[in-house]
């Protein structure tokens, strides 16, 4: 096949170089015309693995307590990288990984749920920045993505799209996974290619339960077999992005029970143990120092004795959850090996898209969404609520959506300070990476300490494949890659650092790295605190970012950021601070704290209409796309046809018992159940049964005030006649669920009202002609705007923690 011009995509059809006479006599075919594009000779398969919400000190491969035999297996035959860096937040790291460009420059200064009107925060990749899978696909690779995506804006996760921001629009031939920031592992709301397919039918099967990590591996292996069944030579690019170890921490008890008693010593002692093993393995230098515990984290010795078992179980579940992820990645690697292609597959395995997550707050939580909704719960309350849903032994089961204590995350980021969201420090930005490509590594089991960044991964893959970054795609001139290839480090442990300068910024926490120097500028806000009091110092007319304390480290001599040199080198502090502002302007980081803009009243204009109608069998509406009923009055109505023998079942339901609402008919009576994150559960039922024939029903909520979590009065109507109601003292201020969808005519997956759990999906047995949400202003315009602003504040809070 003739070598095409790869600098322009898609590749052009080659000119006909055969001969076409008037008849076949003497005519000569040109078989290159019907061949699909092929990559350069020798281009390898690529398996890119990304673990979610995990720290440098988690996997045993890097000295951690979590057994990761498959990660170690690849490291011992490949290379460990101990100075690899990410962005400190989910979507930004993924965007940088799959575009080889800085995250703000491709619109992902924040997470996919929180899109705003500033260029660096749109959650929409510019057409000038074609993603890596698109480049590989157009150059002859088969491409597929499995698992977590988190790169589609919140309001675009339905059939109206635009689908160009789904995985297939990024250049993946096939996708199986979930679009949002996290997912239940037992009851995910799944997408396949360009369709939301919802919760698997075998959810709740006690004998053979569905489990997303298992299914991801199954689907990946199935896809690989299908590709090879069609084409024995075409290289593949597989992006395997686990939902683990993001909350909810879901795993079968047999995995968690492997760690019984292994965390009874607490987080302080655990850090010391991990640090000692890290030195034994050589993944941290012998002269490195363990950083001190910040006062935001309690000492283990100060934890009340009756709570220690509760806390220890949180970490046992997280560890079992993480080991299971290693197991399922291992299954994919085994399948590639059985195909005889492991030696020709470049495996890049990154353990964490940011540091371990501290978003469970100090107490941990039976429901990860309590923190995002700003629900203050003490450790005693968390223990009581956990016991309500089955206690410690159910931590990890479908009945809860748990997240461990922030102090366990701090230990998981050993030996560094802080963690996820904190882009100023290595605890949020440095993660383990292993590369396996046996025929091209001269010292299997070796260590690499070049400064590398997530933007470098795509540049390295293209370099190894022999594919240039295109200068034009679809006629659009392309932004050059921001990453640098580190391919030479595979062959040479002493290869020079090529990535010598890099900015970092996440929610105002920022850093500037250059030639070994690291200027850390962290806002004083505790990452898991989003109260109005905590945010008040960062209001637009109040916050002066140059007033934040600055810490200076020289990383070649200080691997862990243990020694702040700022007082001794004020000139270097000013030099790096000035460089940060220059880089921030260049890569669209400005304005700082655009992530929090909605908290300060910078919100999109109100929509002209507040009435949303659903007709037909609409299912699995993404949680970010349901009508915005939060912090305001609203009504839900439905036109029904009740058959002569009556009807029962769900009219409309959102999410599940840990946060959601359901309007349904039970025992012939209209019923409304509302779960305020599983902390408070309210239920109202009509006094009289529904008549047969055509009937109109309605649930109205009259809010008390324009404030988050407002209480109010519920009234149930039948043909405009009140038939029941009651008070709800608290409502959800921001979002019911991070992943569970809304359904018309049924309640898929986990159900809102556990009284009908054994009848799930409790489909309506009559006819639903229409369901309508009325969220038009019920108040004066001024009050309505205030409620709208509060709702956007809460929506932003979800984005920060996904």
Q: Would you write up a description of this structure?
A:
The chain is of the alpha+beta class and 802 residues long. The chain folds into four domains: 1-35, no CATH class; 45-429 and 450-492 and 499-505, Alkaline Phosphatase, subunit A, CATH 3.40.720.10; 506-600, Arylsulfatase, C-terminal domain (2-Layer Sandwich); 611-780 and 796-800, Jelly Rolls, CATH 2.60.120.200. The chain is 22% helix and 21% strand. It has 15 helices and 29 strands. Strands 2, 3, 4, 5, 6, 7, 8, 9, 10, 11 and 12 form an eleven-stranded mixed sheet that branches. Strands 19-29-20-25-26-27 form a six-stranded antiparallel sheet, with no helix packed on it. Strands 24-23-22-21-28 form a five-stranded antiparallel sheet, with no helix packed on it.
What's the number of structural domains?
Answer: 4
CATH topology of the largest domain: Alkaline Phosphatase, subunit A
Count, helices: 15
Summarize model confidence as the mean pLDDT: 94
CATH classification class of the largest domain:
Alpha Beta
Globally, the shape reads globular
Number of strands: 29
């Amino acid at each position: 096949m003739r070598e095409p011009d790869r600098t322009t995509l898609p590749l052009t059809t080659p000119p006909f170089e055969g001969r076409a006479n008037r008849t076949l006599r003497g005519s000569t075919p040109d078989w290159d015309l019907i061949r699909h594009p092929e990559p350069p000779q020798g281009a390898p398969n690529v398996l890119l693995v990304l673990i979610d919400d995990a720290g440098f000190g988690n996997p045993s491969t890097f000295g951690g307590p979590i057994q990761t035999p498959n990660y170690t297996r690849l490291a011992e035959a490949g290379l460990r990288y101990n100075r690899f860096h990410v962005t400190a937040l989910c979507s930004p790291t993924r965007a940088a990984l799959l575009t080889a460009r800085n995250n703000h420059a491709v619109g992902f200064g924040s997470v996919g749920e929180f899109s705003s009107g500033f260029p660096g925060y749109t959650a929409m990749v510019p057409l000038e920045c074609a993603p890596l899978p698109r480049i590989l696909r157009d150059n002859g690779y088969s491409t597929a993505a499995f698992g977590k995506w988190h790169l589609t804006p919140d309001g675009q996760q339905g059939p109206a799209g635009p689908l160009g921001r789904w995985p297939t629009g990024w250049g993946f031939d096939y996708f199986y996974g979930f679009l949002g920031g996290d997912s239940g592992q037992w009851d995910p709301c799944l997408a396949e290619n360009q369709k939301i397919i919802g919760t698997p039918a075998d959810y709740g099967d006690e004998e053979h339960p569905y489990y997303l990590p298992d299914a991801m591996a199954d689907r990946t292996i199935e896809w690989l077999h299908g590709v090879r069944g069609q084409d024995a030579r075409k290289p593949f690019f597989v992006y395997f992005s686990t939902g683990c170890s993001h909350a909810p921490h879901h795993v079968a008890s047999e995995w968690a029970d492997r760690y019984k008693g292994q965390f009874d010593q607490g987080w302080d002692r655990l850090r010391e143990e991990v640090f000692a093993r890290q030195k034994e393995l050589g993944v941290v230098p012998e002269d490195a120092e363990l950083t001190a515990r910040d006062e935001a984290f309690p000492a283990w010795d100060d934890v009340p004795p009756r709570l220690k078992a509760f806390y220890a179980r949180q970490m046992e579940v997280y560890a079992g959850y993480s080991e299971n992820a290693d197991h399922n990645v291992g299954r994919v690697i085994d399948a590639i090996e059985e195909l005889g292609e492991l030696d020709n597959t470049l495996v890049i395995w990154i353990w964490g898209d940011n540091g371990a997550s501290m978003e469970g707050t100090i107490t941990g939580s039976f429901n990860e969404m309590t923190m995002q909704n700003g629900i203050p719960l003490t450790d005693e309350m968390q223990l009581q609520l956990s016991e309500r849903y089955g206690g410690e032994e159910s931590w990890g089961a479908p009945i809860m959506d748990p997240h461990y204590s922030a102090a366990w995350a701090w230990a998981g980021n050993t030996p560094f300070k802080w963690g996820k969201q904190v882009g100023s420090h290595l605890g949020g930005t440095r993660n383990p990476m292993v590369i396996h490509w046996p025929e091209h590594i001269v010292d299997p089991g070796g260590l690499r300490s070049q400064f590398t960044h997530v933007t470098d991964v795509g540049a390295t893959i293209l370099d190894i494949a022999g594919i240039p970054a295109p200068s034009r795609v679809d006629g659009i001139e392309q932004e050059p890659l921001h990453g640098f290839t580190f391919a030479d480090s595979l062959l040479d442990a002493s290869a020079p650092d090529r990535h010598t300068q890099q900015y970092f910024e996440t929610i105002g926490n920022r850093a500037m790295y250059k030639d070994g120097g690291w200027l850390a500028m962290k806002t004083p806000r505790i990452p898991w605190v989003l109260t109005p009091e905590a945010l008040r110092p960062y209001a637009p007319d109040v916050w002066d970012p140059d007033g934040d304390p600055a810490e200076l480290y020289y990383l070649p001599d200080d691997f862990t950021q243990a020694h702040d040199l700022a007082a001794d080198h004020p000139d270097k502090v000013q030099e790096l601070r000035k460089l940060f502002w220059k880089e921030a302007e260049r890569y669209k980081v400005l304005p700082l704290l655009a992530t929090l803009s909605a908290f300060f009243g910078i919100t999109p204009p109100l929509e002209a209409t507040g009435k949303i109608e659903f007709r037909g069998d609409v299912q699995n509406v993404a949680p970010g796309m349901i009508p915005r009923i939060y912090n305001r009055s609203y009504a839900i109505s439905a036109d029904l046809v009740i058959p002569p023998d009556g009807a029962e079942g769900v009219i409309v339901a959102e999410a599940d018992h840990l946060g959601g609402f359901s309007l349904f008919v039970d025992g012939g009576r209209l019923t409304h159940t509302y779960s305020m994150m599983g902390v408070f559960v309210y239920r109202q039922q009509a006094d009289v049964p529904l008549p047969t024939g055509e009937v109109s029903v309605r649930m109205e909520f009259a809010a008390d005030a324009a404030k988050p979590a407002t209480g109010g009065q519920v009234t149930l109507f039948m043909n405009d006649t009140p038939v029941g109601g009651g008070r709800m003292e608290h409502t959800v201020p921001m979002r019911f669920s991070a992943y569970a969808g809304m359904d018309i005519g049924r309640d898929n997956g986990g159900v809102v009202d556990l009284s009908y759990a054994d009848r799930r999906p409790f489909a309506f047995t009559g006819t639903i002609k229409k369901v309508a949400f009325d969220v038009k202003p019920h108040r004066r315009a001024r009050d309505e705007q205030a409620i709208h602003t509060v709702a956007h504040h809460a929506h932003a809070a979800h984005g920060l923690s996904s």
